[in-house]
Specification:
alpha/beta, Alpha/beta knot, binds S-adenosylmethionine
Length: about 190
């Protein structure tokens, strides 16, 4: 599972699909993250649940939830993902997709009821392979084009959510999601033996 927190992404469905990066508080980052979270060359990852906490104007917070176990098919492009977000924010019914008005603490408490294996991805964290344990449910929390607000980081520290790092290079959120998938897919067996 992934939770991407965007302090700026719009919470309104009234955006144009063109020129999104400059006009929606970087909803494009969320759209690319959705594609990375689910899409494979053939088919998609059914076992992923993707959460995006949108905190931009006009009606924050909005939590977008996309449940791979239920959706018919995930978006295959940034444009398709933006259309899905627009429709979901506009109240359209989409199988496996819904929007909540939960704030960060509420989301965190919800995730903690599902699993204790929650990690915050941060460049200055502990080595991924030394910290992340194989588990049926892992949750990875990521920032967007900017990191999580300081008070959210403090809450994660209070809840003892470990920070894990993919190295010192700062990657895009969607790239981090691909790297996490790769680490869990390919390297997992050698990492954890
Ligand atoms: C584009 S980065 C955000 C800004 C970036 N931290 C900076 O200082 O320029 C997007 C998010 O991806 C995650 N991230 C990026 N690089 C990472 C790394 N090397 N290890 C762990 N997480 C990383 C973090 O959650 C970060 O908030």
């Amino acid at each position: 599972m992934f939770l991407v927190v965007s302090p700026t992404a719009t919470t309104s469905p009234n955006f144009q699909l063109k020129g999104v990066a400059g006009r929606t508080g970087r909803l494009d980052v969320i759209a690319r993250s959705i594609v990375s979270a689910f899409k494979l060359e053939k088919g998609f990852r059914r076992n992923v649940v993707f959460y995006a906490l949108l905190l931009g104007p006009p009606n924050p917070p909005k939590l977008l939830v996309i449940d791979g176990r239920i959706i018919e098919a995930p978006p295959s492009s940034e444009r398709e993902a933006l259309l899905m977000i627009k429709n979901a924010l506009g109240g359209k019914e989409i199988r496996g997709v819904h929007v909540e008005t939960w704030g960060f603490k509420h989301v965190l408490n919800h995730l903690l009821k599902i699993t204790r294996n929650i990690y915050y991805l941060r460049e200055n964290g502990a080595l991924f392979e030394k910290t992340v344990r194989p588990s049926k449910y892992n949750v990875f929390i990521l920032g967007s084009h900017i990191d999580l607000p300081r008070e959210y980081e403090q809450l994660l520290d209070k809840y003892k959510v470990p920070r894990v790092s993919l190295g010192k290079t700062s990657y895009l959120t969607s790239q981090c999601i691909t790297i996490v998938h790769w680490l869990l897919d390919v390297v997992e067996s050698s990492l954890y033996t």
